[in-house]
Specification:
With about 700 residues, the protein is α/β, with parallel strands linked by helices. The protein has 32 helices and 19 strands. The longest helix has 21 residues, at about 500-520. Bound molecules: adenosine-5'-triphosphate and magnesium ion.
């Protein structure tokens, strides 16, 4: 127990030992929130004797959940099942696996990713004789997303009988969506939205099920709580209703998912939801040098909608933060790579300690080229669509055939390699399947001797799948996959293709499964593995060790690296162009928080880079307004930013959607001549957004006076 508390400051210790009731920890980046949370978990287990299966601990990404699990296991010993350290989606899968049969779904339902959704839609479009292009696809998916914004539609899907699409569902789009839901139900597929929605409906329709979970979860903890949306918050609130032990940590300055419905009010107004809640503040930063902290703070202070937090640090002084300005993209990339080589050689840094962060995935490209040229190994998180690759999807489809035998996987691999089951025969199978109410695979088994299926290799396919199924229980997932790829001839098919990269990817997949089996340290059922896998996004791949890490700022949330390059800091990239177009102050503030999250990932050295030139679309590039907002004493500039360009940039920013513009819209801009009933004539010198005052020089007074803006 002692061990869990040493190394924590007093407030952190309080957070660990106050185990009962509703508690929130509000604190800035790098102040040890996540550390307090993991130690608290271990304290509950080691000191209070609580079973890990009675503690729910949620985070937002699988990567974060993984990392937390690893840290907790270090503290409590590796043997215990920490399955409830998970994401919101992961938790919903656990709930549904136990009780989705009440909705007439099998517990081995399939989780659909975007590719699967596309496949279902493609079939519908084919059936209707329509063409599906990217634009239509996106439109329909958006509409489906909108429909799934609330839970009404779920009722239509959970009846015992096959779903009947509404006849006069209105326009063509709505009809397509109805058909889509029907198909979804046929394959027992749930997409990410469904996971949460089905769980909600399950809890509402079956209070006993909710009660079971409420009973079970004595303690509930949440990291990064500032990014909770309404459903996620509601889920936590509901689950905590029995034992009233909810512990959340977060930093409102790091809310970066407002665009997806996150609302910091659940953190900020925690007390209004739970009146006897306690609040703990942490004010010491342990992550970064004073220089990095100063620069980050000078940026976030420009947000109006925020509560100021004074952060201190006792960390040693380090190097000044650097802003590099290049003449073009190549120069920027070259400077970054040179700097990295410097770090590796002169400072004996390891590549693992270096991260390159950016606003959007496409920005990785220009850096990548430079890294390749200099032979520096790197890993990209996100953007690198490992699980979207054809061979990976095919391999997973084999596993899904063994586990679920779902139509999607069947259609994907039944004719790969060629088994003479082409379009016409598939059509035949589909018709029979519809008529007999069977899956495509069961239909194939039933009609394998039918004249229409003669001269196909259907029987071999069936034999392979059946034999694998019979061994499912006694084999590891990795062994099953290896066998599946061999027995079905898939591996040979890829080998013949001669594409080494594909073979390497298959090996990489096997390797990742073995790794997963090892870190979990438990026997994993195939079904469970598959469901978890679909929840994974590319962001969660562990990545090769000893490589420079490239990722978006969103992905870097909660992480830390000794050396950070925040690149492509160009106006209309960060803040991004959409935000500027919308002219919403809140959007701009979210972009500023994003920059803040990026900067506060750095422990020892921070580099902000951007360059001149033109963006695609012919827009001239200027340094981001966020660069100009930084405290000038707090950073050093390398590279020449011409006075002329700087002036132009500032005008551009002002015209686009400048901070002065904000003042304009809400009152008077700086420099406006004003007249006060008592003090007479004056000029607005400064605007203090936080206090909502003007600082005005009155001709009759010696010193400026703050005057309320109202
Ligand atoms: P973020 O807001 O970015 O998620 P956080 O508040 O969760 O940050 P942590 O990641 O928990 O911060 O901690 C930041 C770093 O400080 C970690 O390396 C952690 O080990 C270290 N740290 C936390 N608390 C202490 C402490 N009391 N003494 C020494 N180091 C600490
Ligand atoms: Mg954290």
């Amino acid at each position: 127990m002692e061990e869990l508390l040493t190394g924590l400051n007093e407030s952190q210790q309080q957070a660990v030992m106050e185990t009962e009731g509703y508690i929130r920890v509000i604190a800035g980046a790098g102040s040890g929130k996540t550390k307090a949370l993991t130690h608290r978990y271990a304290f509950l287990v080691n000191a209070l004797g609580i079973e890990p299966s009675n503690i729910l601990c949620v985070t937002f990404t699988n990567k974060a959940a993984h990392e937390m699990r690893r840290r907790v296991k270090k503290l409590i010993g590796g043997e215990q099942d920490t399955g409830f350290i998970t994401t919101y989606h992961g938790f919903c899968v656990r709930v549904l696996r136990e009780d989705i049969h009440r909705f007439f779904y099998p517990k081995n339902f399939v989780i659909l990713d975007v590719e699967d959704q596309k496949t279902l839609l493609r079939e519908i479009f084919e059936d209707l004789g329509l063409k599906l292009n990217d634009k239509t696809f996106k439109r329909i998916l958006d509409k489906i997303g909108m429909l799934k914004g609330n839970t009404h539609y779920v009722n239509q899907m959970i009846t015992r009988d096959a779903m009947v699409p509404l006849d006069d569902a209105g326009d063509l789009d709505s009809q397509i969506i109805q058909l889509y839901l029907k198909k979804q139900k046929r394959v027992f597929g749930l997409d990410f939205d469904d996971l949460i929605n089905f769980t909600f409906v399950l809890f509402h329709k079956y209070p006993k099920v909710l009660g079971k979970w409420q009973d079970r979860l004595f303690y509930i903890q949440g990291d990064e709580f500032q990014d909770s949306n309404e459903k996620q918050f509601e889920l936590m609130r509901m689950l905590a209703e029995k034992h009233h032990n909810l512990f959340v940590v977060g930093d409102p300055d790091q809310t970066i998912y407002e665009w997806r419905g996150a609302d910091p009010k659940y953190m900020v107004e925690f007390q209004s939801f739970f009146p006897d809640a306690q609040t703990i503040f942490l004010n010491q930063n342990y992550r970064s040098t004073p220089e990095i902290l100063a620069v980050s703070n000078s940026l976030i202070k420009h947000n109006v909608f925020r509560v100021d937090k004074e952060m201190i640090t006792e960390n040693q002084e380090g190097l000044k933060v650097i802003h590099y300005h290049g003449k073009d993209e190549n120069e920027e990339a070259k400077w970054i790579v040179d700097k990295i080589e410097d770090l590796l050689k002169k400072k004996q840094a390891s590549k693992d300690e270096i991260a390159i962060l950016y606003r959007a995935n496409y920005l990785s490209r220009f850096i990548e080229q430079a890294l390749i040229k200099e032979n520096i190994d790197y890993t990209i998180f996100g953007g690198f669509k490992f699980f979207d690759r054809m061979e990976i999807k095919d391999a997973i489809a084999h596993l899904r055939m063994i586990a679920f035998g779902d139509d999607l996987s069947f259609a994907r691999i039944v004719n790969v390699p060629k088994r003479q089951i082409g379009k016409k025969r598939m059509q035949f199978l589909r018709e029979r399947a519809e008529a007999d109410g069977l899956t495509l695979y069961d239909t194939l088994k039933k009609y394998v001797d039918h004249p229409r299926l003669q001269r196909t290799q259907a029987q071999q396919f069936i034999d392979a799948i059946e034999s694998l199924r019979s061994r499912k229980k006694d084999n590891h997932v990795s062994e099953l996959l290896q066998d599946a790829l061999q027995r079905t001839g898939y591996e040979a098919y890829i080998r013949e293709d001669g594409d080494q990269e594909r073979l390497d990817n298959l090996t990489e997949l096997l390797h990742s499964i073995v790794q997963y089996e090892q870190t979990m340290g438990e026997d994993i059922e195939l079904e469970e593995y598959l469901q978890m896998l679909t929840l994974y996004t590319d962001n969660d791949l562990e990545g090769k060790s000893n490589t420079v890490k490239l990722m978006t700022i969103h992905t870097a949330k909660g992480l830390e690296f000794p050396y950070v390059f925040l690149v492509g800091m160009t106006e209309s990239v960060l803040p991004n162009v959409r935000t500027l177009r919308d002219r919403k102050e809140r959007g701009l503030e979210e972009e500023r928080r994003l920059a803040y999250v990026g900067m506060t990932r750095a422990e020892k050295e921070l580099y902000l880079t951007e360059s001149e030139g033109y963006q695609s679309g012919g827009v001239k590039k200027y340094p981001s307004r966020f660069i100009f907002e930084l405290d000038e004493d707090a950073y050093q500039r390398i590279g020449i930013l011409d006075e002329e360009l700087e002036k132009e940039a500032k005008e551009y920013i002002k015209a686009a959607y400048g901070t002065d513009r904000v003042a304009n819209e809400q009152g008077h801009p700086k420099g406006t001549k004003v007249r006060h009933p008592v003090f007479g004539e004056g000029v607005i010198e400064e605007i203090d957004h936080k206090k909502n005052t003007y600082l005005i020089y009155f001709d009759n007074l010696k010193a400026p006076r703050p005057i309320s803006r109202n």
